[in-house]
Specification:
Order of helices and strands of chain A: HHHHHHEEHHHHEEHH
Largest sheet of chain A: 2 strands, parallel
Strand order of the largest sheet of chain A: 1-4
Number of helices of chain A: 12
Distance between the termini of chain B: 33 Å
Number of domains of chain A: 2
Oligomer: heterodimer
Number of strands of chain B: 6
CATH class of the largest domain in chain A: Alpha Beta
Helix content of chain A: 40-55%
CATH topology of the largest domain in chain A: Nitrile Hydratase, Chain A
Distance between the termini of chain A: 38 Å
CATH architecture of the largest domain in chain A: Alpha-Beta Complex
Helix content of chain B: 25-40%
Strand content of chain A: 5-15%
CATH superfamily of the largest domain in chain A: Nitrile hydratase alpha /Thiocyanate hydrolase gamma
Order of helices and strands of chain B: HHHHHEEEHEHEEH
Strand content of chain B: 15-25%
Number of strands of chain A: 4
Largest sheet of chain B: 6 strands, antiparallel
Radius of gyration of chain B: 20 Å
CATH architecture of the largest domain in chain B: Orthogonal Bundle
Number of helices of chain B: 8
Number of domains of chain B: 2
CATH superfamily of the largest domain in chain B: Nitrile hydratase, beta subunit
Chain lengths: 213, 235
C-alpha cells in the first residue's frame, strides 16, 4: 500500500494516523532527501528482524545444549565463544552469558535502564520486556511477578534476576521438558519459546513429544 | 541522570501485558523508526549506543511513558539529528504539517540548542564493533564485598538508582569495557573494569521489607568507578 496516497485527500473516513506515524514519515522523507537513509532501509529492517533474526537462533542453542553435554559446558562457561561458529546476525551479543535453570534455581533477565536484549539470539524484544511494568517489578518482586505472568515458583526455588546494565547480554537456558527423550535437535528446538529464554516461562512437556514429526 | 528511564523497583506501573503473538513491529512506522535509528548512527548523529541511550533518557518524562519504545527511539533519533546539526526542528515540523500532522507536536524529542549540547566532540562515523577494551587488572576480586556509589549525576550512567549505596558481592570480572558515563557525552572511551555484582533482595529493599527473600537476588553489571571496597564487611 502506498501510504502517501492517503495524505492527498482529507477524507475523515480514513483511519487517522498517529502523531508518531506522521512524524516518522516526515523524518524518513527528510533523511531520504538528504541521502542519509536508503529507500530500501525499512524493507531491509523488516526482512532482517521480522524474519531472519529471532528466537529460533536461541532455540537452536538450547536444543543443542540439551543433547550435547560438551556444547552445554562450553555455552555455560563462555557463550560468546560457543556461539561464534553460528555467525548469527543481528548484533547485541558482544558478550553473551547463558545462565542455566535447574529444579533448584530460576533465572530471569531484564534491563531496568533501557531495553538491552541479545538481539542475535532472541531477536528484537517483545513489547512487555520494554514496558515499565516488567522493568520496574521483576527486580523488586520477581516471585510475585512471575506468578502473575503464569509461572508460580515454589518458595524453595532460588531466583536470580539479571539486570543487563552494561554490554553483557543474558540468555536463560531453560530446563528440558519431560517426555522429550529421543527427539531430534530440530524437534526440541521447536519446543523452545522466546519467553523461556528470557526466564518468564518454563517449558511444559509438549503434546507433540514422542510424535513423529 | 535520575530520569524516568530508571525504572527498577518503582511502584505504580501495573500488570505486565504479554500480548502473546504480537508481531515484531506493531505498525510500519515502528520499523521505519528502527531504520532511522540505524541511519542516524551511520550518519554520525550519535557515536555510540551509550550516546543514543542518553538521547532517549533525555526525552520528556510524560512522553517517555506514553509514546512507547519506538516513540522513544523516534524522540532519541530526532534529538540526535538536531543536536548534530543534520536537521533543524523547524524543517521537521514543516514537513509534519505538510503530511497533515501538527508541527508543534514535538512527540518526545527535547533537543538542546547546538552549542548548549553536552556533546563536546564532533560525531564520527567510525565505530568499533565491540565496546570491549584492554585495561589493567582491576581493584576487586571474585568474592569481594563492594559498596556502590551514592552519587547522583546529571549525565548518563549505568548504575541504577535502586542499587546506589548498596553492598554487594563481586561474582564475575568481565575485563575492560568502554565507560558509558564518559563515552555518552563524547568525553572519550575511558575504559574501565566491569564486574557482575550480586545483591541480596534484603540489601536492595530493606531487611524488613516484604520484598526481602533469602533466596532472591539481583545481578548487575557495574563499572569499577561505581564501586568501593566495603570496609564494614571486610574489617
Amino acid at each position: 500500500m502506498n501510504d502517501d496516497q492517503k495524505h492527498h485527500d482529507h477524507d475523515h473516513d480514513h483511519e487517522k494516523k498517529s502523531p508518531q506515524a506522521i512524524r516518522t514519515e516526515a523524518l524518513e522523507s527528510l533523511l531520504i532527501e538528504k541521502g542519509l537513509l536508503s529507500e530500501h532501509a525499512v524493507d531491509d529492517v523488516i526482512a532482517n528482524y521480522a524474519q531472519r533474526v529471532g528466537p529460533m537462533n536461541g532455540a537452536l542453542l538450547v536444543a543443542r545444549a540439551w543433547t550435547d553435554a560438551e556444547f552445554k559446558q562450553r555455552l555455560l562457561s563462555n557463550a560468546t565463544q560457543a556461539i561464534a561458529e553460528y555467525d548469527f546476525q543481528g548484533g547485541q551479543v558482544d558478550h553473551l552469558v547463558v545462565v542455566e535453570n535447574t529444579p533448584e534455581r530460576h533465572n530471569a533477565v531484564v534491563c531496568t535502564l533501557c531495553s538491552c536484549y541479545p538481539w542475535a539470539v532472541l531477536g528484537l524484544p517483545p513489547k512487555w520486556y520494554k514496558d515499565p511494568a516488567y522493568r520496574s517489578r521483576i527486580v523488586r518482586e520477581p516471585r510475585a511477578l512471575l506468578a502473575e505472568m503464569g509461572l508460580p515458583l515454589d518458595k524453595k526455588i532460588e531466583i536470580r534476576v539479571w539486570d543487563s546494565s552494561a554490554e553483557v547480554r543474558y540468555m536463560v537456558l531453560p530446563m528440558r521438558p519431560a517426555h522429550t527423550e529421543g527427539m531430534t535437535q530440530d524437534e526440541l528446538a521447536a519446543l523452545v519459546s522466546r519467553d523461556s529464554m528470557i526466564g518468564v516461562e518454563v517449558l511444559e512437556a509438549s503434546s507433540r513429544a514422542g510424535q513423529p514429526s | 541522570m535520575d530520569g524516568i528511564h530508571d525504572l527498577g523497583g518503582k511502584h505504580g506501573y501495573g500488570k505486565v501485558d504479554r500480548q502473546a503473538g504480537a508481531p515484531t513491529f506493531a505498525a510500519i512506522w515502528e520499523a521505519k523508526v528502527f531504520a532511522i535509528m540505524m541511519a542516524t548512527g551511520a550518519a554520525g548523529a550519535w557515536k555510540s549506543s551509550d550516546q543514543f541511550r542518553h538521547f532517549v533518557e533525555k526525552i520528556e518524562p510524560a512522553a517517555y511513558l506514553s509514546h512507547g519504545y519506538y516513540g522513544r527511539w523516534l524522540g532519541g533519533a530526532e534529538t540526535a539529528l538536531v543536536e548534530a546539526g543534520l536537521i533543524e526542528s523547524e524543517q521537521l515540523s514543516a514537513r509534519v504539517e505538510q503530511l497533515g500532522g501538527s508541527g508543534g507536536d514535538l512527540i518526545a524529542a527535547r533537543p538542546q540548542l547546538r552549542g548548549q549540547s553536552i556533546n563536546r566532540e564532533t560525531p564520527s562515523v567510525s565505530r568499533a564493533r565491540t565496546a570491549k577494551r584492554d585495561v589493567d587488572a582491576g581493584l576487586f576480586s571474585v568474592g569481594d564485598a563492594v559498596l556502590t556509589s551514592s552519587e547522583v549525576k546529571p549525565g548518563h550512567t549505568r548504575l541504577p538508582a535502586y542499587a546506589r549505596n548498596k553492598v554487594g558481592e563481586i561474582v564475575t570480572i568481565h575485563g575492560g569495557w568502554v565507560y558509558p558515563d564518559s563515552n555518552a557525552h563524547g568525553l572519550g572511551e575511558q575504559p574501565k573494569q566491569l564486574y557482575t555484582v550480586k545483591f541480596a533482595s534484603s540489601e536492595l529493599w530493606g531487611e524488613t521489607s516484604q520484598y526481602a527473600e533469602a533466596n532472591v537476588s539481583v545481578y548487575l553489571d557495574l563499572f569499577e568507578p561505581y564501586l568501593q571496597s566495603d570496609s564494614v564487611n571486610e574489617c
